[in-house]
Design goal:
2 domains; 450 residues; Rossmann fold; alpha/beta; globular; four-stranded antiparallel beta sheet; eight-stranded mixed beta sheet
Amino acid sequence: MRRDTSIFYNPKIETMSRSDLAALQLAKLKWQLDRCYHWSEFYRERFDAAGVSPADVKTLDDIRKLPFVHKEELREEQAQHPFLGRFTVAPETEFREVHPSTGTTGTPVNTIWSATDVQYIAEVTARTLWSIGVRPGDVLQNAFAYGLWVAGLAVHYAGAKIGCLVIPIGATLTERQIDYMVCLKSTVLIATPSYAIYLAEQLKAHHYSTSDVNLRIGCFGGEPGTEVPATRRSIERGLGIDAYDYYGLAEIGPTFASECTHKTGLHWSEDLHFIEVIDPETTEPVPEGEVGVLVITHLERSATPMVRYWTNDLVRLDRLPCPCGRTHARSPEGILGRADDMIVFMGVNFYPMQVEQVVRSFEELSPEYRIRLTYDTATHRDICTISVELEQEKMSQEQGAMLREKAANALRETLGFRPEVEFVHQGTLERTAFKAKRVIEERPAFVKKS
């Protein structure tokens, strides 16, 4: 159990100079590529097809010679070679846990945690929790899902490693969440942003105020949201806490990047993961500070390492030291969107997070929203309707019209076009403890054929 109360969980690693960090990364990268080539038919075939071997990677820049790995390729690999595919590297005697991706956008990809993977995932997750202020003696209410979704287990292991009292409630039992929050005096909440907002609503519905709970901080991931200023404010006001952004992927690690108390962006654990930001058109690295697709390579993962995994998440990178003193690269504003989440409407491209930022900037509206895209056969026009809930439904018709006009104008300024704005009754839009689906695509030209 950790008793140190310093700002860093692992000072030597977290404050390492960039030159020392690069040397460490190169040594680990060479080790990882060598084992992938010799122990995985999947990687050996891909490297050979690209005309590259581990010996050709002499500098960190040489990683560009290697092919990317896309999620669909992992799905195809496991379909052709069930159940795990041929990208496992560690021997089966070292396998300890199997975890699939969520499968919300296709067949889940199964990954394996070896004994050493369990240790490193717990270690890096403890580092992320420590960076937001979690300390020994905290009461950690873990509202991430357990079971096959890996984030719940990672946070559980890390909370125990730090020395917290962990409440393993998972992403259900909202009534009991409130009870534990009040009676066990939880100090830390871990959940999705959507569920955090819902818990804040339910706390109020149960006639509790933020002064009735002992929550101090919370870390929220599993979906975009916390990095959006309006969403962060909604969570912080609703729960009376400091809210921090969290990031992870089942294929990489469930909880391996978070903000620090300065809220300057996601801190990447570069001693464990090699981070690239790639232009999706040229597939070359973008200049530092510009937006591109996040690509990650495992430097220590034992059982199912990913080499140049194409996440589809959009980020920008800042390698300057953070005011907190950590030297690892950061992504200011966190995940900026997903390349495959972009919506095309009337020649304009936009992302759901842009709508979220506008909706949640209005105190008169609840944080929930839906984007519905339809096609009018009579006028042959696409229609975009944003459905929002009124926080206080007792307003005159004139007040409602003025608010609708104000919201539509704000959306036009952000999106570049004026959508329809629809008010619905409070509680109409579904709340979820997991990944909320907020885009409803009904245009025939865009609906995916099964």
